[in-house]
Amino acid sequence: MTPAAPEVVLASGHGVAELVRAILAAVDQEYPHRLAQELTCDADLAPPRVLNPSFYGSYDWHSAVHCHWSLLRCLDSGLPSDLRRQAVAVLDRHLAPEALAGELSFWDGPGGRHVERPYGWAWLVALHAECLRHRDGGTAGASGWAEALRPLAELLGSRLESYFGAELAFPIRSGTHANSAYSLRLLHRAGVIGKNPTLRRAAATAAERAFGTDGALPFHGAPSGDAFVDPSLTEAALIADLYEPDRFAGWFARACPPGAQRDWSPPGFERSGEDPGRVHLEGLLITRAGCLHRVASALPAGDPLAEDLRRGVEDHLAAIRTIEPTDGFGRSHWLPTFLGDLDRELAG
After folding, report:
1. CA-CA distance, 252 to 216, in Å (whole number)?
2. Predicted local distance difference test score (pLDDT) of residue 4
3. Domain ranges in the chain?
4. d(CA 326, CA 93)
């Protein structure tokens, strides 16, 4: 008998198969659900599976979208054959043309004009780019998934280009879903992965306009109690994505000048899977680790500040290894995605 292949383990110490099982359960779990829509009349009220035939699970729409992104990423991870079949079956069902036609109807209607902007929309564009990557890599079914997603990705991508290009007067620097830098990173990466130079340039132009001339940023102090994004580190990681090393070093010298107070250590807090704010803080540990790594990797070799940032990464990873991402639906509907994305970030 052929021995079973060892389970793939992420840099955070979490097993990919365990995370995929949690995602598979989440994407088909309709309730509890946090519904995001703008009501215009009584007829707009309907169950999540009716409003959003593809992305009705995982507690909220944006989490459902990025859970499907995670399934695609995990297809590269040597999943056991039965688990891979389950993942492909979910993608076949949820990314089917008829289901996505229902999604397009919702998002092209009055209830979908503003909700989930920019975070959920950016994840949808990223999901489409990942389908394109798998299509080009020969993954069975990916061509159909990409084509079925294309109209919705084009609609929301076009809206995001307008939003970041002209409609948003000032960047949003919060620690939650509205954060501008986080979604711009998603969009820029989607433009690169999906080989879409128009999207890539639009994201880069918007980021330059919003953050290119920033001065000193706060890299210290306690986070907001519901944050899963560090605004300053996420902005720095975005600029690192866009700039060549010499130019980034100059930008970062302004953002974090010599003698400025800085703290790359993970924030401490009491864990609770029942409190959404504290579960968000678990996500913050993950996103901070990825951004610290990205910034460190963009600085010159031997830079003392880069070494400090790398120590911060290791400290965050130690804290992340104590997270139980499948312990309760409050965690399992979204933390597996963030752990997978951290692994992508650390891999370069």
Report:
1. 9
2. 57
3. 16-34+47-342
4. 24
Contact between residue 124 and residue 65 where contact means Cβ atoms under 8 Å apart: yes
* Pair 327, 283: CB distance under 8 Å: no
3-state DSSP helix/strand/coil % of the chain, to nearest 5: 60, 0, 35
* Sign, CA torsion 16/21/26/27: positive
For residue 1, the model assigns a pLDDT of: 44
- What is the rounded CA–CA span in Å between residue 304 and residue 147? 47
Question: What is the distance between the alpha carbons of residues 107 and 192, in angstroms, rounded to a whole number?
Answer: 25
Beta-carbon contacts of 47 under 8 Å, excluding residues fewer than 6 positions away, are: 30, 56
Q: Which residues contact 65 (CB under 8 A, 6 or more apart)?
A: 55, 120, 123, 124, 127
CATH number of 16-34+47-342: 1.50.10
The residues of the chain scoring below 70 in pLDDT are 1-5
* Contact in structure between 329 and 59 (CB atoms under 8 Å): yes
Q: What is the pLDDT of residue 291?
A: 98
Q: What is the pLDDT, as a whole number, of residue 7?
A: 76
CA dist 8 to 12, 73, 78, 137, 235, Å?
11, 13, 7, 21, 31
